[in-house]
Design goal:
380 residues, alpha/beta, FAD/NAD(P)-binding domain, D-Amino Acid Oxidase, Chain A, domain 2, 2 domains, 9-stranded mixed beta sheet, 17 strands
């Protein structure tokens, strides 16, 4: 028996465990006591998609503000962008306050015009962001070439994003949650979920049953079939990392790059001198398992970067692939599961997985402590 069960011990589960376990005073006011918290995962902790993350921690959402506004309205789109911006500020404060060692660095970003959104679209996007006091500036082709040596029709230059080591970040958060008294069980899989008004029974593959008052599924795209949420597309993605002797322009040390294309390319430098790049996403949940495709995609990524910035020189040392869930709006699902009492789910995190994991921990904590997060309605 436990008060709260968190299913998933990756980066999202780590944020959830840390956020809930560090809120004993808030729980005492609502529950009368600090709840017991149990984390369950079918793998060892921090496996799954966490180690596949390239950790570009951005407040910029996959879908531009202008186009998100067409789907959910200008007011809601503005709130979504502002909340992501605030989430990165909150994350920075947390890492500094708790001295979390995870190679966290504030970065600027460069969003290049591409075949999805050209220079005029990005210029309008930058104008809309400026109205929200978001730190973005449009660069025309001449300015982009002069400042970054990149030949594109335009780009948006933005401040206040970040990068980190996702494995270290998740591990440090989980360690602090364990110090706060949570219990962690790995290599146990939830095979059935039975919810009722008084709690939830989780049947495990070893025959045991975990009974909890509240359950939060933080399993990304691997959500059990019995937990019903809005459909998210499952995509495959690829990434490579260079050795530590990569040659790159000086501006790459503190600026991450992504492009408005499909498929798109993104890349950043690491503190130890590597280049990490990824993209080439395809709408196929199993494509990432094909070893021959890994070699092909890795070569394509390397050629794309070389074409964009010819002066770059590097040797690929690591290459990997993974899958992730993505919604049509670029916004995740952070809410109670449909037709299931006391069950919450966090899914459809897209390319902003770590940023949305911060937000998810805040929304769920508020709900469990008897409050309503002001932006919770964005993620239903």
């Amino acid at each position: 028996m436990t008060d709260i069960a968190i299913v998933g011990a990756g980066i999202t589960g780590a944020f959830m465990a840390h956020g809930l376990s560090a809120s004993s005073e808030a729980f005492k006011r609502e529950w009368g006591y600090p709840p017991s918290i149990t984390v369950l995962d079918r793998r060892r902790p921090l496996r799954g998609s966490t180690l596949a993350s390239t950790a570009l921690l951005q407040w910029e959402i996959d879908l531009p503000l202008v186009h998100l506004a067409k789907k959910i309205g200008h007011a809601n789109a503005s709130r979504a962008y502002r909340r992501c911006f605030q989430a990165l500020s909150d994350l920075s404060h947390l890492i500094k306050a708790e001295n979390i060692r995870c190679a966290f660095e504030e970065r600027s970003t460069l969003y290049l015009a591409g075949d999805q959104y050209g220079a005029r679209a990005l210029a309008k996007e930058a104008e809309e962001r400026a109205r929200l006091d978001l730190p973005s500036t449009f660069l025309n082709a001449r300015e982009l070439a002069e400042q970054f040596g990149i030949k594109r029709t335009g780009a948006i230059f933005s401040l206040k994003s970040a990068s980190a080591n996702p494995g270290q970040l998740a591990a440090e958060l989980m360690r602090r949650a364990l110090a706060n008294g949570i219990t962690l069980y790995s290599s146990v899989e939830v095979v059935d979920v039975l919810a009722d008004p008084s709690g939830v029974s989780l049947k495990m593959d070893n025959g045991h049953v975990v009974r909890a008052k509240k359950v939060v599924f933080c399993t990304g795209y691997e959500l059990p079939e019995m937990v019903s949420i809005p459909k998210a597309d499952i995509l495959s993605t690829w990434a490579i990392a260079s050795d530590k002797s990569a040659t790159m322009p000086a501006w790459m040390k503190d600026t991450m790059v992504w492009e408005a294309s499909d498929p798109y390319l993104y890349f950043r430098a690491t503190p130890d001198g590597r280049i990490v790049l990824g993209g080439e996403d395809v709408d196929d949940p199993l494509a990432h398992t094909q070893k021959s495709l890994l070699r092909t995609k890795a070569k394509t990524l390397q050629n794309k970067l070389k074409s964009l910035i010819p002066e770059i020189e590097f040797q690929t040392e690591y290459k990997w692939a993974g899958a992730f869930g993505n919604s049509t709006t670029g916004l995740p699902f952070i809410a109670p599961a449909r037709s299931m009492d006391n069950v919450w789910a966090v899914a459809g995190l897209g390319g902003n997985g770590i940023t949305y994991s911060v937000i998810a921990s805040q929304i769920v904590k508020a709900s469990f402590c008897g409050k309503t997060d002001p932006d919770a309605d964005l993620y239903l």
